[in-house]
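Practice problem: predict the structure.
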Amino acid sequence: MPLEYEKKGHVAYFTIRNGSVNPMTPSIHKQMYHTMLDFLADEDIRVGIMTGAGERAFSAGDDIKTPYAKFETPAEEMAAHLWPKHRVEEEDPQTFAWSRDVLALERYKPIIAAVRGYCLGQGMIYLLHLTDIRVASDDAKFGFPEIAYGMGGAGGSSRLSRHLPHTVAMEMLLTGDPMSAADALKHNLVNRVVDGDAVMAEAEAIAARIARHPPLAVRIEMEAYYRSIDQTKLDALAATKHLYRMQRLVHGGGSEKVGRFLYKNDAAD
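Answer:
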């Protein structure tokens, strides 16, 4: 399958495997949605690693050669856009609408990116939305080349201003030029830049450090962090206090089953 999903211990691996530069297709987006649901629901999985197969690319973005669904009238096309019929399980999707469902998921379980080579377009959007810690090879490149083909909008769908300073984001979006791994590190788009052969080992080392902690504490930390981004100071303080107190109450008086799952540091088991 073009998206491989594998579990090893407490870690789940998402590997985009679709040719030399791992372009995204409607089927990959659909698989990403369903594997992400499994990842979030599996209580034994504490952290994920997302990567692209091979050395050339994490993903070069959506495959522009993929044929789109054809419509008889503009009204039919608009209806398909607003109410996409992409949940028919027995059929292959003909549009990229599934990517919207992936991006809309509420995710409070960490994912580490292991990036080699190109990370462009939709691959870059997934990197920004679906990963929390990022390890890149020294030859990695990040960007949105779509503007050269008359396809703007990456600034909104990626929420790039949350990840880069305004002027840096504008240069990336408006020139279409890729950002080097060194500049990505300088602007805190990635956490580490290492030799290509060391990318996965570094990502796994970080995953192990996260997986050793109680899952509930990780969940609470991530939810408090992400929710506070769009909250006022007082709302963030109140929400965090409630989440923290709920965690402490369960820790002190929860059932034996809940206690074992949420608090046992058994990542090495």
